[in-house]
Design brief:
By secondary structure, this protein is of the alpha/beta class. It has helices at about 5-15, 35-40, 75-80, 90-95, 140-150, and strands spanning about 20-25, 50-55, 60-65, 85, 115-120, 125-130, 135-140, 150-155. The chain is built from 5 helices and 8 strands. A hairpin with a 4-residue loop joins β2 and β3 (about 60-65).
């Protein structure tokens, strides 16, 4: 249990949303999602990463998928009604979202972007994802986070 509260945790606490906080050791660089899952003793299919893209229309979109999966850009674009989407540059992440690489969460971004979760998330009891800071994760019911961020679900992975 993490004793440190991230902004994501404060948002959840304020909304009286139940979650479990987890922390893991990390150095100067964020570990891979697979490493985080292993450290937490979680199935990597239940640990999700948050990816930020820019569509053909110049709108930004957030996709949340299992850590070992690869985002299919065609499926992602289709899910948000775009011709195409591309990953944003890592240097754009912090100014756009307020989060750094490895600590990006769909909760509490500077602006609310259209967010889509991999549809498999609905089959899980809980999903674990970044608490908005490298070294911290939250575990939460999928329907709760989907509702909180106003997300939809779609088939997004390879």
């Amino acid at each position: 249990m993490a004793e440190f509260k991230t902004n994501v945790m404060r948002i959840l606490d304020k909304s009286k949303i139940k979650y479990t906080a987890h922390s893991y050791p990390c150095g100067d660089t964020a570990p891979s999602g697979s490493e985080v899952a292993a450290f937490l003793g979680k199935n990597p299919d239940e640990v999700y990463k948050t990816l930020v893209t820019r569509g053909n229309s110049k709108q930004y979109y957030v996709f949340v998928i299992p850590v070992e999966a690869h985002l299919n850009l065609k499926k992602a674009a289709k899910s948000v009604g775009e011709k195409s989407v591309e990953m944003i540059k890592q240097s754009e992440l912090l100014p756009l979202t307020g989060y750094v690489h490895g600590g990006c969460s769909p909760i509490g971004m500077k602006k609310r972007f259209k967010t889509v979760f991999q549809s498999d998330v609905e089959t899980l009891d809980t999903v674990t994802l970044s608490a908005g800071k490298v070294g911290y994760q939250i575990e939460i019911e999928p329907k709760t986070i989907i509702s909180l961020v106003g997300a939809s679900t779609a088939e997004l992975t390879e």
